[in-house]
Amino acid sequence: MNSLKSINYTIHCGSSTLLELNAFLQSKAYSSIFILCDSNTLEHCLPLVLNLCPIFKKAEVLEVEPGESSKSLDIAAHIWQTLLDCKADKKTVIINLGGGVVSDLGGFVASLYKRGIDFINVPTSLLAMADACVGGKNGINFGDIKNSIGTITQPQGVFIYPDFLLTLSQRHINNGMAEIYKMGLIVDAVFWNKIGDVKQAISAENYIYKSVSLKNIIVKQDPLENGSRKALNFGHTIGHAIETTLLNTPNELLHGEAIIVGMIAEGWLSWKKKLLPKAELTKIIAIFSKKYVLQKIAETHFDTILAATTHDKKNQKKEIRCVLLNGIGQVKTDCVVTSELIKKALIFYNSIVKPK
Ligand SMILES: NC(=O)c1ccc[n+]([C@@H]2O[C@H](COP(=O)([O-])OP(=O)(O)OC[C@H]3O[C@@H](n4cnc5c(N)ncnc54)[C@H](O)[C@@H]3O)[C@@H](O)[C@H]2O)c1
Fold first, then answer.
1. Which of 40, 130, 137, 321 counts the highest number of beta carbons within 10 A?
2. Is pTM beyond 0.70 here?
3. Tell me: the pLDDT tens digits for 167-216?
4. 6 in ligand 1 pocket by Cβ < 6 Å?
């Protein structure tokens, strides 16, 4: 059992976290408890939680459809209406039991309902355990732009129970690994070398704990992303633009899968700007090519992807600003890149994708 202090809350990780969650809720004496799930976490995770946390016998369950489409204003409004109908007051807590979609949505709903009620993240996917559950970023997709509306509001606690991963598909495990790779690349070269080495056996719990610890250090230093927290966006300028562009198309990518493409493309930009040695870029590509089935990005999408990069939250004065690797384990933030260079990075990415 491990625990970490974050910004006014504790992150618990390990096999006894659900018991700790029960004790935590008992100590808080909330007037009502709502558990937000999607239909998969309702089926696979909620029974375990109900079994181990007697306090949830009195809880109301809110269910949404799995997937990105639930991070919408319509779904948020529906939950707000349900909370009002149930007369949920300021001493209500929302438990986000799910992946990053549930925690982003539930955190957003809670941060605005009655000007803010408590919420707790109980992540169930690898991506949410290793990354999304910590740092307080929440939000919805709006106007066809990912995460364009949201707040930075910290949860009251994070309870990571790695056994939830037993029912998660391999595709979603690989999806979560993307953010773990990113953590190594941006701040910890030793960790990157360890996770890149397929012969090293590291337990999921150790991966998660290490990744969350590294993220926690960064977000504690810069909770509102005015400076050093921008490091977490490596791979995300191009990755988010690709994710947004392919959303609801037959080639739709999961968040982590899009970030893998973004990290290869932005790794190339890092090399092009003489920040990353060629050998390191080659190693990144080799590791990602082994782990993921990389797909070419159709050139017909390039213009939409380039347009989407102009909406990135890191941009300033209409300039596209990327986070690039400054060697392995370090980053350089606010690197100005042109659309032409991003297009070249996409062409480079396509050139390394092996034909099926
Ligand atoms: N707030 C942040 O800091 C942050 C960071 C990274 C990503 N994100 C966001 O997170 C989202 C992606 O998160 P995700 O990959 O967890 O997606 P997700 O929430 O859609 O979960 C992935 C899939 O796995 C299912 N699932 C989850 N846990 C399960 C379990 N234990 N057993 C069986 N099925 C399970 C879900 O129902 C879903 O179908 C994106 O919207 C992204 O923008 C947020």
1. 130
2. yes
3. 999 999 999 999 999 999 999 999 999 987 666 666 888 989 999 999 99
4. no
With a 6 Å cutoff on the Cβ, whether 121 touches ligand 1 is: no
Q: Report strand pairing: 157-160 vs 10-13.
A: parallel
pLDDT at 311: 81
Q: Which amino acid is at 316?
A: Q
Phi, psi of 95 (to 5 degrees): -100, 115
List pLDDT tens digits, range 136-154: 999 999 998 889 999 999 9
* % of the chain residues with pLDDT over 70: 98
Q: Which of 45, 127, 216 best tests ligand 1's pocket when mutated (most atoms within 8 Å of CB)?
A: 127
Active-site residues: which are they? 115, 137, 179, 215, 225, 229, 233, 236, 240, 255
